[in-house]
Amino acid sequence: MTKTVIIGTNHAGIAAANTLLDNYSDQEIVMIDKNTNLSYLGCGTALWVGRQIDSYENLFYTNKEAFEEKGAKIYMGTTVKSIDFTQKIIHCENPEGTFDESYDKLILATGSKPIAPNIPGKDLKNVEFLKLFQDGQAVDNVIGQADVKNVAVIGAGYIGVEIAEAAKRRGKNVLLFDAAERCLPNYYDTWFTQDMDRVLSENGIELHYNELAKEYLGQEKVAAIVTDQGEYPVDLVINAIGFVPNNNLGKEHLDLFNNGAYLVDLHQQTSDPDVYAVGDCSTIYSNALQETTYIALATNAVRSGIVAGHNIGGTPLESIGVQGSNGISIFGYHMVSTGLTVQAAEKAGFKVKYTEFEDLQKPGFMKENNKVKIRIVYEESSRRILGAQMASYEDISMGIHMFSLAIEEKVTIDKLKLLDIFFLPHFNQPYNYITMAALSAE
Protein backbone atom coordinates (compact mmCIF):
# COMPACT_ATOMS: atom_id res chain seq x y z
CA MET A 1 0.00 0.00 0.00
CA THR A 2 1.08 3.56 -0.71
CA LYS A 3 0.07 6.06 1.94
CA THR A 4 -0.85 9.42 0.41
CA VAL A 5 -1.66 12.36 2.66
CA ILE A 6 -3.59 15.29 1.18
CA ILE A 7 -3.41 18.61 3.05
CA GLY A 8 -6.35 20.77 2.01
CA THR A 9 -9.80 19.51 1.04
CA ASN A 10 -11.25 22.03 -1.31
CA HIS A 11 -11.48 21.68 -5.12
CA ALA A 12 -7.91 20.54 -5.84
CA GLY A 13 -7.57 18.24 -2.82
CA ILE A 14 -11.00 16.72 -3.41
CA ALA A 15 -10.20 16.03 -7.09
CA ALA A 16 -6.92 14.34 -6.12
CA ALA A 17 -8.62 12.26 -3.40
CA ASN A 18 -11.45 11.13 -5.68
CA THR A 19 -9.00 10.23 -8.46
CA LEU A 20 -6.97 8.03 -6.12
CA LEU A 21 -9.92 6.48 -4.27
CA ASP A 22 -11.90 5.72 -7.44
CA ASN A 23 -9.06 4.29 -9.52
CA TYR A 24 -6.32 2.84 -7.31
CA SER A 25 -7.11 0.18 -4.71
CA ASP A 26 -3.53 0.07 -3.36
CA GLN A 27 -3.81 3.58 -1.92
CA GLU A 28 -4.25 4.50 1.73
CA ILE A 29 -5.65 8.04 1.73
CA VAL A 30 -5.49 10.50 4.62
CA MET A 31 -7.08 13.95 4.22
CA ILE A 32 -6.41 16.88 6.56
CA ASP A 33 -8.03 20.32 6.63
CA LYS A 34 -8.12 23.07 9.24
CA ASN A 35 -11.64 24.05 8.16
CA THR A 36 -14.76 22.35 9.51
CA ASN A 37 -16.39 22.05 6.07
CA LEU A 38 -15.20 21.02 2.64
CA SER A 39 -16.06 21.52 -1.04
CA TYR A 40 -17.48 25.05 -0.72
CA LEU A 41 -18.04 26.71 -4.11
CA GLY A 42 -16.84 30.19 -3.19
CA CYS A 43 -17.80 31.51 -6.63
CA GLY A 44 -21.43 31.18 -5.47
CA THR A 45 -21.00 33.39 -2.38
CA ALA A 46 -22.18 36.55 -4.16
CA LEU A 47 -25.22 34.71 -5.58
CA TRP A 48 -26.22 33.70 -2.07
CA VAL A 49 -25.44 37.07 -0.41
CA GLY A 50 -27.32 38.82 -3.24
CA ARG A 51 -30.29 36.42 -2.79
CA GLN A 52 -30.13 35.23 -6.40
CA ILE A 53 -30.22 31.70 -4.99
CA ASP A 54 -32.36 30.55 -2.07
CA SER A 55 -29.69 29.19 0.27
CA TYR A 56 -26.04 28.22 0.58
CA GLU A 57 -26.62 24.46 1.13
CA ASN A 58 -26.13 23.49 -2.50
CA LEU A 59 -22.83 25.38 -2.70
CA PHE A 60 -21.32 22.30 -0.99
CA TYR A 61 -20.99 19.43 -3.46
CA THR A 62 -19.64 16.69 -1.18
CA ASN A 63 -18.94 15.98 2.49
CA LYS A 64 -16.63 14.19 4.92
CA GLU A 65 -18.84 11.08 5.02
CA ALA A 66 -18.55 10.56 1.24
CA PHE A 67 -14.77 10.12 1.58
CA GLU A 68 -15.01 7.93 4.68
CA GLU A 69 -17.38 5.63 2.77
CA LYS A 70 -14.70 5.27 0.09
CA GLY A 71 -12.15 4.30 2.74
CA ALA A 72 -10.30 7.56 3.38
CA LYS A 73 -9.31 8.75 6.83
CA ILE A 74 -10.26 12.41 7.09
CA TYR A 75 -9.38 14.95 9.79
CA MET A 76 -11.40 18.20 9.71
CA GLY A 77 -10.76 21.13 12.05
CA THR A 78 -7.13 20.03 12.14
CA THR A 79 -4.15 22.34 11.70
CA VAL A 80 -0.87 21.12 10.24
CA LYS A 81 1.77 22.80 12.44
CA SER A 82 4.80 21.69 10.42
CA ILE A 83 6.14 19.01 8.08
CA ASP A 84 9.38 17.07 8.46
CA PHE A 85 10.11 16.43 4.77
CA THR A 86 13.21 14.32 5.58
CA GLN A 87 11.43 11.89 7.90
CA LYS A 88 8.13 12.27 5.98
CA ILE A 89 6.14 13.14 9.10
CA ILE A 90 3.34 15.70 9.40
CA HIS A 91 2.81 17.32 12.83
CA CYS A 92 -0.90 18.02 13.41
CA GLU A 93 -3.07 19.64 16.06
CA ASN A 94 -6.83 19.62 16.64
CA PRO A 95 -9.16 20.11 19.65
CA GLU A 96 -8.38 16.54 20.80
CA GLY A 97 -4.64 17.23 20.97
CA THR A 98 -1.51 16.81 18.85
CA PHE A 99 -0.61 13.84 16.65
CA ASP A 100 1.73 12.86 13.82
CA GLU A 101 0.88 11.39 10.43
CA SER A 102 3.48 9.75 8.21
CA TYR A 103 3.33 9.65 4.41
CA ASP A 104 4.81 7.97 1.36
CA LYS A 105 3.46 10.65 -0.96
CA LEU A 106 2.20 14.09 0.02
CA ILE A 107 -0.19 16.40 -1.85
CA LEU A 108 -0.22 20.05 -0.80
CA ALA A 109 -3.61 21.56 -1.67
CA THR A 110 -3.45 24.49 0.71
CA GLY A 111 -4.97 27.01 -1.71
CA SER A 112 -4.55 30.75 -1.42
CA LYS A 113 -5.10 33.38 1.24
CA PRO A 114 -6.63 36.86 0.87
CA ILE A 115 -4.29 39.84 0.56
CA ALA A 116 -4.80 41.87 3.73
CA PRO A 117 -4.08 45.60 3.43
CA ASN A 118 -1.93 46.56 6.41
CA ILE A 119 -3.62 49.88 7.15
CA PRO A 120 -4.82 51.52 10.39
CA GLY A 121 -8.24 50.30 11.48
CA LYS A 122 -7.98 46.92 9.75
CA ASP A 123 -8.98 45.14 12.99
CA LEU A 124 -12.23 47.07 13.49
CA LYS A 125 -15.50 45.13 13.44
CA ASN A 126 -17.31 44.95 10.09
CA VAL A 127 -14.04 44.91 8.13
CA GLU A 128 -14.42 41.59 6.32
CA PHE A 129 -12.72 39.34 3.76
CA LEU A 130 -14.25 36.86 1.32
CA LYS A 131 -12.70 33.42 0.92
CA LEU A 132 -14.16 30.71 3.13
CA PHE A 133 -17.79 29.76 3.75
CA GLN A 134 -17.48 31.38 7.19
CA ASP A 135 -16.42 34.66 5.55
CA GLY A 136 -19.53 34.54 3.36
CA GLN A 137 -21.65 33.89 6.44
CA ALA A 138 -20.12 36.88 8.23
CA VAL A 139 -20.69 39.24 5.29
CA ASP A 140 -24.24 37.96 4.79
CA ASN A 141 -24.98 38.49 8.47
CA VAL A 142 -23.69 42.08 8.52
CA ILE A 143 -25.43 43.01 5.24
CA GLY A 144 -28.68 41.75 6.77
CA GLN A 145 -28.51 44.33 9.57
CA ALA A 146 -30.88 47.26 9.06
CA ASP A 147 -28.40 49.87 10.35
CA VAL A 148 -25.81 48.81 7.75
CA LYS A 149 -26.55 51.20 4.90
CA ASN A 150 -23.20 52.04 3.26
CA VAL A 151 -20.93 49.25 2.01
CA ALA A 152 -17.38 49.80 0.72
CA VAL A 153 -15.87 47.11 -1.48
CA ILE A 154 -12.09 47.31 -1.85
CA GLY A 155 -10.90 45.80 -5.13
CA ALA A 156 -12.69 45.72 -8.50
CA GLY A 157 -11.59 42.27 -9.61
CA TYR A 158 -14.04 39.39 -10.04
CA ILE A 159 -14.91 38.93 -6.36
CA GLY A 160 -15.14 42.67 -5.69
CA VAL A 161 -17.46 43.36 -8.63
CA GLU A 162 -19.64 40.34 -7.79
CA ILE A 163 -20.00 41.21 -4.09
CA ALA A 164 -20.70 44.87 -4.99
CA GLU A 165 -23.62 43.66 -7.12
CA ALA A 166 -24.78 41.39 -4.27
CA ALA A 167 -24.74 44.23 -1.72
CA LYS A 168 -26.66 46.47 -4.14
CA ARG A 169 -29.26 43.73 -4.65
CA ARG A 170 -29.70 43.73 -0.86
CA GLY A 171 -30.62 47.43 -1.01
CA LYS A 172 -27.33 48.88 0.20
CA ASN A 173 -25.51 52.00 -0.95
CA VAL A 174 -22.33 50.54 -2.50
CA LEU A 175 -18.96 52.21 -3.11
CA LEU A 176 -16.45 50.24 -5.19
CA PHE A 177 -12.80 51.24 -4.75
CA ASP A 178 -9.72 50.26 -6.73
CA ALA A 179 -6.24 51.72 -7.14
CA ALA A 180 -6.45 50.84 -10.86
CA GLU A 181 -8.30 53.01 -13.35
CA ARG A 182 -10.97 50.41 -14.24
CA CYS A 183 -12.55 47.11 -13.21
CA LEU A 184 -11.34 43.62 -14.18
CA PRO A 185 -8.02 44.73 -15.79
CA ASN A 186 -6.48 41.23 -15.52
CA TYR A 187 -9.08 39.63 -17.79
CA TYR A 188 -10.36 42.31 -20.19
CA ASP A 189 -9.14 45.22 -22.26
CA THR A 190 -10.62 48.69 -21.77
CA TRP A 191 -13.06 48.24 -24.69
CA PHE A 192 -14.86 45.67 -22.51
CA THR A 193 -14.37 47.06 -19.01
CA GLN A 194 -15.82 50.45 -20.02
CA ASP A 195 -19.12 48.62 -20.67
CA MET A 196 -18.99 46.79 -17.34
CA ASP A 197 -18.23 50.07 -15.54
CA ARG A 198 -21.28 51.59 -17.25
CA VAL A 199 -23.42 48.59 -16.15
CA LEU A 200 -22.21 49.04 -12.56
CA SER A 201 -22.88 52.80 -12.60
CA GLU A 202 -26.30 52.46 -14.20
CA ASN A 203 -27.27 50.02 -11.45
CA GLY A 204 -26.32 52.51 -8.76
CA ILE A 205 -22.83 51.41 -7.73
CA GLU A 206 -20.54 54.36 -6.98
CA LEU A 207 -17.18 53.85 -8.70
CA HIS A 208 -14.00 55.14 -7.05
CA TYR A 209 -11.12 54.18 -9.33
CA ASN A 210 -7.54 55.50 -9.11
CA GLU A 211 -8.27 55.71 -5.39
CA LEU A 212 -6.23 54.02 -2.69
CA ALA A 213 -7.62 53.08 0.75
CA LYS A 214 -5.41 54.58 3.47
CA GLU A 215 -7.28 54.05 6.75
CA TYR A 216 -10.48 52.75 8.35
CA LEU A 217 -11.97 54.96 11.06
CA GLY A 218 -14.24 53.98 13.93
CA GLN A 219 -14.42 53.15 17.65
CA GLU A 220 -15.24 49.43 17.78
CA LYS A 221 -16.95 49.17 14.40
CA VAL A 222 -15.82 50.71 11.13
CA ALA A 223 -17.53 54.08 10.53
CA ALA A 224 -15.58 55.57 7.63
CA ILE A 225 -12.97 54.83 4.99
CA VAL A 226 -10.19 57.32 4.24
CA THR A 227 -8.58 57.22 0.78
CA ASP A 228 -5.95 59.40 -0.89
CA GLN A 229 -8.87 61.44 -2.24
CA GLY A 230 -11.37 61.76 0.58
CA GLU A 231 -13.31 60.32 3.50
CA TYR A 232 -16.56 58.35 3.18
CA PRO A 233 -18.99 57.11 5.85
CA VAL A 234 -19.34 53.30 5.69
CA ASP A 235 -20.89 50.61 7.89
CA LEU A 236 -19.17 47.62 6.27
CA VAL A 237 -15.90 47.16 4.39
CA ILE A 238 -15.40 44.06 2.22
CA ASN A 239 -11.79 43.46 1.17
CA ALA A 240 -11.49 41.78 -2.22
CA ILE A 241 -7.99 42.86 -3.25
CA GLY A 242 -6.91 39.42 -4.40
CA PHE A 243 -5.08 36.34 -3.18
CA VAL A 244 -1.56 35.02 -2.69
CA PRO A 245 -0.55 31.33 -2.68
CA ASN A 246 -0.64 29.74 0.78
CA ASN A 247 2.91 28.34 0.92
CA ASN A 248 3.44 28.38 4.71
CA LEU A 249 4.11 24.66 5.06
CA GLY A 250 6.66 24.15 2.29
CA LYS A 251 8.29 27.48 1.47
CA GLU A 252 11.54 26.63 3.27
CA HIS A 253 11.88 23.24 1.56
CA LEU A 254 10.37 23.48 -1.93
CA ASP A 255 11.27 25.55 -5.00
CA LEU A 256 8.95 28.53 -5.42
CA PHE A 257 7.67 30.63 -8.34
CA ASN A 258 8.26 34.41 -8.27
CA ASN A 259 4.96 35.00 -6.43
CA GLY A 260 5.61 32.30 -3.82
CA ALA A 261 3.58 29.48 -5.42
CA TYR A 262 5.08 25.99 -5.30
CA LEU A 263 6.87 25.39 -8.59
CA VAL A 264 5.55 22.18 -10.16
CA ASP A 265 6.17 20.30 -13.40
CA LEU A 266 3.48 19.02 -15.78
CA HIS A 267 2.92 16.04 -13.40
CA GLN A 268 2.20 18.49 -10.50
CA GLN A 269 5.44 17.27 -8.87
CA THR A 270 7.44 19.76 -6.79
CA SER A 271 11.22 19.91 -6.36
CA ASP A 272 10.77 17.11 -3.78
CA PRO A 273 9.81 14.01 -5.84
CA ASP A 274 7.51 12.69 -3.06
CA VAL A 275 5.61 15.96 -2.75
CA TYR A 276 2.97 17.19 -5.22
CA ALA A 277 1.22 20.57 -5.14
CA VAL A 278 -2.19 21.32 -6.69
CA GLY A 279 -4.62 24.19 -7.00
CA ASP A 280 -4.06 27.78 -5.93
CA CYS A 281 -0.86 27.05 -3.99
CA SER A 282 0.94 25.86 -7.14
CA THR A 283 2.01 27.04 -10.59
CA ILE A 284 0.40 26.06 -13.86
CA TYR A 285 1.48 25.97 -17.51
CA SER A 286 -0.06 28.61 -19.79
CA ASN A 287 -0.53 27.62 -23.43
CA ALA A 288 -0.93 31.26 -24.41
CA LEU A 289 2.35 32.33 -22.79
CA GLN A 290 3.98 28.95 -23.54
CA GLU A 291 5.52 29.02 -20.08
CA THR A 292 4.86 28.38 -16.40
CA THR A 293 2.69 30.96 -14.68
CA TYR A 294 0.10 31.36 -11.88
CA ILE A 295 -3.66 31.35 -12.58
CA ALA A 296 -5.88 30.75 -9.54
CA LEU A 297 -9.21 29.36 -10.80
CA ALA A 298 -11.37 26.53 -9.44
CA THR A 299 -11.39 24.79 -12.83
CA ASN A 300 -7.58 24.75 -12.90
CA ALA A 301 -7.54 23.42 -9.34
CA VAL A 302 -9.75 20.44 -10.26
CA ARG A 303 -7.66 19.55 -13.29
CA SER A 304 -4.40 19.77 -11.34
CA GLY A 305 -5.81 17.48 -8.64
CA ILE A 306 -6.78 14.86 -11.23
CA VAL A 307 -3.28 14.99 -12.80
CA ALA A 308 -1.53 14.62 -9.42
CA GLY A 309 -3.82 11.76 -8.40
CA HIS A 310 -3.09 9.69 -11.50
CA ASN A 311 0.66 10.25 -11.29
CA ILE A 312 0.77 9.18 -7.64
CA GLY A 313 -1.49 6.21 -8.48
CA GLY A 314 0.99 5.02 -11.10
CA THR A 315 -0.46 6.32 -14.37
CA PRO A 316 1.96 8.86 -15.90
CA LEU A 317 -0.13 11.83 -16.96
CA GLU A 318 0.96 15.31 -18.02
CA SER A 319 -1.13 18.44 -17.72
CA ILE A 320 -2.02 19.79 -21.16
CA GLY A 321 -1.78 23.36 -19.84
CA VAL A 322 -4.50 25.96 -19.47
CA GLN A 323 -5.72 29.18 -21.04
CA GLY A 324 -7.21 30.73 -17.92
CA SER A 325 -10.75 30.73 -19.33
CA ASN A 326 -13.15 32.71 -17.16
CA GLY A 327 -16.44 34.56 -17.11
CA ILE A 328 -18.54 37.00 -15.13
CA SER A 329 -22.22 37.99 -15.16
CA ILE A 330 -23.28 41.23 -13.47
CA PHE A 331 -26.85 42.60 -13.56
CA GLY A 332 -27.43 40.34 -16.57
CA TYR A 333 -24.38 41.52 -18.55
CA HIS A 334 -22.10 38.61 -19.45
CA MET A 335 -18.37 38.83 -20.19
CA VAL A 336 -16.09 35.87 -20.96
CA SER A 337 -12.40 35.69 -21.83
CA THR A 338 -9.57 33.24 -22.35
CA GLY A 339 -5.84 33.55 -22.88
CA LEU A 340 -4.20 36.97 -23.00
CA THR A 341 -5.64 40.46 -23.37
CA VAL A 342 -3.79 42.96 -25.57
CA GLN A 343 -2.42 44.57 -22.40
CA ALA A 344 -1.26 41.25 -20.89
CA ALA A 345 0.26 40.03 -24.17
CA GLU A 346 2.29 43.21 -24.64
CA LYS A 347 3.42 43.11 -21.00
CA ALA A 348 4.62 39.52 -21.60
CA GLY A 349 6.71 40.72 -24.53
CA PHE A 350 4.52 39.61 -27.45
CA LYS A 351 4.09 41.79 -30.51
CA VAL A 352 0.37 41.42 -31.10
CA LYS A 353 -2.47 42.58 -33.28
CA TYR A 354 -6.16 42.27 -32.55
CA THR A 355 -9.35 42.19 -34.52
CA GLU A 356 -12.75 43.08 -33.12
CA PHE A 357 -16.36 43.23 -34.18
CA GLU A 358 -19.66 44.41 -32.74
CA ASP A 359 -23.08 43.41 -34.05
CA LEU A 360 -26.47 42.02 -33.04
CA GLN A 361 -26.37 38.40 -31.92
CA LYS A 362 -29.28 37.43 -34.22
CA PRO A 363 -30.78 38.89 -37.42
CA GLY A 364 -32.49 42.27 -36.90
CA PHE A 365 -35.97 40.80 -37.41
CA MET A 366 -35.68 38.64 -34.26
CA LYS A 367 -37.59 40.16 -31.33
CA GLU A 368 -35.28 38.94 -28.56
CA ASN A 369 -31.89 40.26 -29.52
CA ASN A 370 -28.82 41.97 -28.09
CA LYS A 371 -25.50 43.37 -29.22
CA VAL A 372 -22.37 41.21 -28.99
CA LYS A 373 -18.76 42.37 -28.84
CA ILE A 374 -15.77 40.21 -29.65
CA ARG A 375 -12.02 40.81 -29.73
CA ILE A 376 -9.46 38.23 -30.85
CA VAL A 377 -5.80 38.81 -29.95
CA TYR A 378 -3.11 37.19 -32.09
CA GLU A 379 0.67 37.22 -32.40
CA GLU A 380 1.83 39.38 -35.31
CA SER A 381 4.62 37.08 -36.56
CA SER A 382 3.09 33.59 -36.18
CA ARG A 383 -0.56 34.80 -36.37
CA ARG A 384 -1.23 32.34 -33.50
CA ILE A 385 -4.36 33.18 -31.47
CA LEU A 386 -3.32 34.28 -27.97
CA GLY A 387 -6.64 35.35 -26.48
CA ALA A 388 -10.28 36.26 -26.96
CA GLN A 389 -12.88 38.35 -25.14
CA MET A 390 -16.65 38.42 -25.69
CA ALA A 391 -19.50 40.35 -24.06
CA SER A 392 -23.27 40.62 -24.38
CA TYR A 393 -26.61 40.55 -22.58
CA GLU A 394 -27.08 37.34 -24.59
CA ASP A 395 -25.51 34.15 -23.21
CA ILE A 396 -22.50 33.90 -25.52
CA SER A 397 -20.41 31.98 -22.96
CA MET A 398 -20.02 28.70 -24.87
CA GLY A 399 -18.18 30.49 -27.67
CA ILE A 400 -15.15 31.11 -25.48
CA HIS A 401 -14.46 27.36 -25.17
CA MET A 402 -13.69 27.23 -28.89
CA PHE A 403 -11.08 29.96 -28.42
CA SER A 404 -9.64 28.10 -25.44
CA LEU A 405 -9.08 25.05 -27.67
CA ALA A 406 -7.74 27.30 -30.44
CA ILE A 407 -5.04 28.66 -28.11
CA GLU A 408 -4.17 25.18 -26.86
CA GLU A 409 -3.84 23.89 -30.44
CA LYS A 410 -1.92 26.98 -31.68
CA VAL A 411 -4.62 27.81 -34.25
CA THR A 412 -3.94 30.91 -36.37
CA ILE A 413 -6.39 33.76 -36.92
CA ASP A 414 -6.56 32.82 -40.61
CA LYS A 415 -7.90 29.33 -39.79
CA LEU A 416 -11.03 30.98 -38.34
CA LYS A 417 -11.90 33.01 -41.43
CA LEU A 418 -13.81 30.24 -43.22
CA LEU A 419 -14.60 28.08 -40.20
CA ASP A 420 -17.83 26.08 -40.57
CA ILE A 421 -20.17 27.98 -38.25
CA PHE A 422 -23.84 27.11 -38.69
CA PHE A 423 -26.58 29.72 -39.03
CA LEU A 424 -30.12 29.71 -37.63
CA PRO A 425 -32.03 32.93 -36.78
CA HIS A 426 -32.82 31.58 -33.30
CA PHE A 427 -29.10 31.55 -32.49
CA ASN A 428 -27.01 33.81 -34.71
CA GLN A 429 -26.51 35.72 -37.95
CA PRO A 430 -25.47 34.32 -41.35
CA TYR A 431 -22.35 36.49 -41.12
CA ASN A 432 -21.43 35.35 -37.62
CA TYR A 433 -19.54 37.83 -35.44
CA ILE A 434 -16.72 35.30 -34.95
CA THR A 435 -16.37 34.92 -38.73
CA MET A 436 -16.60 38.69 -39.26
CA ALA A 437 -13.91 39.40 -36.65
CA ALA A 438 -11.60 36.82 -38.22
CA LEU A 439 -12.24 38.10 -41.75
CA SER A 440 -11.42 41.67 -40.73
CA ALA A 441 -8.03 40.69 -39.29
CA GLU A 442 -5.11 42.39 -41.05
TrEMBL record:
Domain annotation Pyridine nucleotide-disulphide oxidoreductase dimerisation: ranges: 333-428
Give the UniProt keywords, A-Z: FAD, Flavoprotein, NAD, Oxidation, Oxidoreductase, Redox-active center
Which cofactor is essential here?
A: FAD
Give start and end of each FAD/NAD(P)-binding domain. 3-305
The reaction(s) catalysed by this protein are: 2 NADH + O2 + 2 H(+) = 2 NAD(+) + 2 H2O
- Check the record and name the PANTHER family matching this protein: NAD(P)H SULFUR OXIDOREDUCTASE (COA-DEPENDENT), PYRIDINE NUCLEOTIDE-DISULFIDE OXIDOREDUCTASE DOMAIN-CONTAINING
Would you tell me the protein name for this molecule?
NADH oxidase
